[in-house]
From TrEMBL:
The protein's name in its UniProt record: LacI family DNA-binding transcriptional regulator
Highest classification ranks of the organism: Bacteria, Bacillati, Bacillota, Bacilli, Lactobacillales
Protein species of origin: Bombilactobacillus apium
Superkingdom classification of source: Bacteria
Keyword list, A-Z: DNA-binding, Repressor, Transcription, Transcription regulation
Pfam families per record: LacI, Peripla_BP_3
Domain HTH lacI-type, chain residue ranges per copy: 2-56
Alphabetized InterPro entries for the sequence: HTH_LacI, LacI/GalR-like_sensor, Lambda_DNA-bd_dom_sf, Peripla_BP_I
Transmembrane domains' residue ranges: none
MF terms in GO: DNA-binding transcription factor activity; transcription cis-regulatory region binding
C-alpha cells in the first residue's frame, strides 16, 4: 500500500507539501498540486486518515461547494445543510469557490483525495471538466453541471412571474430586471424567462441589466447608480436580495422615493433579510426544504450509485410583500 512518502518521492516534493495539497492548506502553485494529484492517482494512494474507506466503509464526510457564505442566501443554505447532515451523522468539508475556476478545480481534487462520500455543489463555474469525471455521488443546487447530475432548485420561473406580476399590480409598467450572468442551461435563467413572459403578455418592453455574481460591490453600485441617474423606472425586480437592497440604498442617495417613485422586489427571502430588512419585498425560497431534498437525493446515491433519479427537482416559492413594494 502506497504511503505519503511514496507520493512525495514520485511527485518530487516534500511530505509536508503532499499533506498541504490533500488538505488544501496554504499557498501552492497549480503545477505543484497537479504533480501531487498525478502521483496519488498513479500510486492509487488514499489518505491514511481515511484508510477505512479501502475496507468498504464510509468516511461520513460530505463536500459542499458554493460560491461564498458571505452571501446571506448561500450562508443560510450551507448552515442548514451542515445542521441537517450532522443530525444524520455526517460532517462537512466546505469549499467557497466564488467564481474562481482554478480554486474550484483545486477543491474538487481535494474532496476526491479525501474520499468524501458525496458532494453537494452550487458552484458558478460550468466549464470545469472535473465535474464530468467525478465518481463520487454528486447533487447540484441550481446549476447544470452535467447530464447525469440531478439539479434541485426553487421554482425560478414562477418566482419571477410572481415578482414581475406584483410590480404590475402596483401600476408599474416600466419594469427593469437586475440579474446575474445568464449562462445557457442554468435553472436561474428561468427568472429571466418568467420576467420576459409576463412583460410580453402585457405588451411591455423589457429592460435587462446584467450584474455578474462575482462583480465587485463597488462596480455594481456604480453601474446601478449610473443607470438610475439616467432614468428612473417605475419598478425593479432584482434576482437576489442583496442587489435589491443596494438598489434601494442608491435610490435614497439620489433622492428617489421608495415606493412612491420606484418600487423594488428581490429574490431569496432568507430569514436574515426578512428579520433585519423587513421593508424589502421579495420572493422566498424554501431553504429548509431545499436542503432536505439535496441531502435525501445524495444519500440515495450514496446507498445505491446506480439508482435512477430525476434530472430536476423544483420546489415552490412564495411572495413576501413589504414596504418597498406596497408602501406603508
Amino acid at each position: 500500500m502506497a504511503k505519503l512518502a511514496d507520493v512525495a518521492a514520485l511527485a518530487g516534493v516534500s511530505v509536508t507539501t503532499v499533506s498541504r495539497v490533500i488538505n488544501n492548506y496554504g499557498s501552492l502553485s497549480e503545477k505543484t498540486k497537479q504533480k501531487v494529484f498525478t502521483a496519488m492517482q498513479e500510486l492509487n494512494y488514499q489518505p491514511n486518515s481515511l484508510a477505512r474507506s479501502l475496507q468498504g466503509k464510509k468516511t461520513q464526510l460530505i463536500g459542499l461547494i458554493f460560491p461564498g457564505v458571505s452571501n446571506p442566501f448561500f450562508g443560510e443554505l450551507v448552515q442548514t445543510l451542515e445542521s441537517q447532515l450532522f443530525q444524520k451523522g455526517y460532517r462537512v468539508m466546505l469549499c467557497n469557490s466564488l467564481g474562481d475556476a482554478q480554486k474550484e478545480r483545486s477543491y474538487v481534487r481535494m474532496l476526491l483525495a479525501n474520499q468524501v462520500d458525496g458532494i453537494i455543489a452550487g458552484a458558478h463555474n460550468l466549464t470545469i471538466p472535473e465535474y464530468q469525471e467525478i465518481k463520487a455521488p454528486l447533487i447540484s443546487f441550481d446549476r447544470d453541471l452535467g447530464e447525469t447530475i440531478p439539479i434541485v432548485s426553487s421554482d425560478n420561473y414562477t418566482g419571477a412571474r410572481l415578482a414581475t406580476g406584483a410590480l404590475l399590480e402596483t401600476g408599474a409598467q416600466d419594469i427593469w430586471l437586475l440579474t446575474g450572468a445568464n449562462d445557457p442551461g442554468n435553472p436561474t435563467n428561468e427568472r429571466l424567462r418568467g420576467y420576459q413572459t409576463v412583460l410580453a403578455e402585457n405588451h411591455l418592453a423589457p429592460t435587462i441589466v446584467e450584474l455578474p455574481f462575482a462583480m465587485a460591490a463597488e462596480v455594481k453600485w456604480t453601474t446601478i447608480q449610473q443607470k438610475l441617474s439616467q432614468h428612473v423606472p417605475e419598478g425593479i425586480f432584482a434576482t437576489d436580495d442583496m442587489t435589491a437592497i443596494m438598489t434601494i440604498q442608491i435610490a435614497h442617495s439620489l433622492g428617489i422615493k421608495i415606493p412612491e417613485q420606484l418600487r423594488v422586489i428581490g429574490y431569496d427571502g432568507t430569514a436574515l433579510i426578512r428579520n433585519y430588512y423587513p421593508d424589502l419585498a421579495t420572493i422566498v425560497q424554501p431553504i429548509t426544504a431545499i436542503s432536505a431534498l439535496l441531502i435525501e437525493l445524495l444519500l440515495k446515491r450514496i446507498q445505491d450509485p446506480q439508482i435512477q433519479l430525476e434530472d430536476r427537482y423544483v420546489l415552490p416559492v412564495k411572495r413576501y410583500a413589504a414596504k418597498s413594494l406596497l408602501g406603508n
